[in-house]
Design goal:
Low-confidence stretches: none
Number of helices: 6
Structural class: alpha/beta
Length: 143
């Protein structure tokens, strides 16, 4: 079974989970940990996730910042537990959705392809240039 953990500083993780549920209609099998907010206990929630996985599970863990405290604690715990987890840092919605919706077991190469495609989702639209196009031909407006 594919097990997914989304963890972040603040409420990014639960926000991403909310978007995933809206777009893909999936919530089961996904755990979100909003670290360092309210009175939640990050360590306790991480332990609950780790306790819920088995050696047969495919484990994908998404964190917000590579080298950030959330990423460091999760990486350390996975190493201590000997979990063969795939930890993807610098997460975004496209990469989580692609992993979530990928069919068969994901190979290392397949996961790397998903990460590369998701990196391409980060683009810049220069509105100044779009306005020039709209002025030239209002019938072909971008939106």
């Amino acid at each position: 079974m594919r097990k997914i953990l989304i963890a972040s500083h603040g409420k990014l993780a639960s926000g991403l989970l909310s978007s995933i549920e809206l777009l893909a209609g999936i919530k089961d099998g996904i755990v979100a940990i909003d670290a360092y907010v309210d009175d939640n206990d990050f360590e306790k929630e991480l332990n609950q996730f780790i306790d819920s996985v088995s050696n047969e599970d495919e484990i994908f863990i998404f964190t917000d910042l590579f080298g950030g405290s959330v990423n460091q604690k999760i990486t350390k715990r996975c190493l201590e537990e000997g979990l063969a987890a795939n930890i993807i840092s610098g997460m975004n919605l496209p990469v989580i959705l692609e992993v979530l919706l990928a069919g068969e077991d994901l190979t290392k190469e397949g996961l790397n392809e998903i990460v590369q495609r998701s990196q391409q989702e980060l683009t810049v639209n220069i509105l100044e240039d779009l306005n020039l196009v709209a002025e030239e031909d209002e019938e072909e407006v971008f939106f």
